[in-house]
Model the fold of this input.
Amino acid sequence: MQPDEERFLENFESDSIQFYPRDPILVVGSTLIEMPLYAPFRRKERFAIRRTIGERISQRNARVVSAPEPLPQNESEQTGYGPGPFLEGGDVFVLGRDIYVGNSGIASNKAGIRWLQDCLGEDYTVHEVRLSRKFLHLDCVLCTPRPGLAMVCEEAFLDGLPPFLKGWELIKVSFEDAERKLACNGLVLDENTILIAAELPELANELAKAGQTVVTTPFSAVYWQAVASENSIRRSGRLDRMSALEPRRDQLPRWRVHGCAGMSAKSAMVALGAGSCIWRPSIRRSRTRA
Done:
């Protein structure tokens, strides 16, 4: 953001971060949605992203929607920052025409989930996934490297695993690793390749056994900061992949990774907050695996 913009926004909240840019925006089909984040100081994050992608969006046949701004309320122990609506990208998994949204009580909420359903209309069905308050977002406890394979922290799901996971191969992540090392926040590079923290060797072995090519990078500095932030939220109430199989009428759906082009693996992991990437249909090209 520009200095004059930062000075203006300081009248509302002086703090600011731009470390998890997947939370302020959501892409569903050709619709880009600016999200209503829970923490007031984070609601400024959309402006820098809007400037960054604005020209690209204007050149495409895209629909841009900005969610209603949550009511301006001071924080309270009973109601947090009020009724919302609150909706954060780290909670949203788009799987075909079904959209799963995590609700831990400290990020997205029921009002945000209802608004998303109203925004998208009857072409999509939005499902609430209730989570333990130990986790901020759904992508902290679920990752879908490819169709039929998922990493999950089962203890985090208050109503059991989402039904779409039935029959999938599941790699189970411990509560401690999911909470302390963000073990489910792998960055999916394509349906055969995933980037995870080097501090998770056992998980890397499990993914390799499942047929994934595993790339690792030291990541403790990043997950330490995320865990510290989440602990602060749980203590005070204050204040991060999304997967998508977009069906097309003219062909059988295939999956391809979208959203990481032009970035090194390490840069993408930091920039996206390390989670599942967006998946969209594509004509599958032939490739040779090493």
In short: The two ends are 43 Å apart (CA to CA). Residues 220-236 form the longest helix (17 residues).
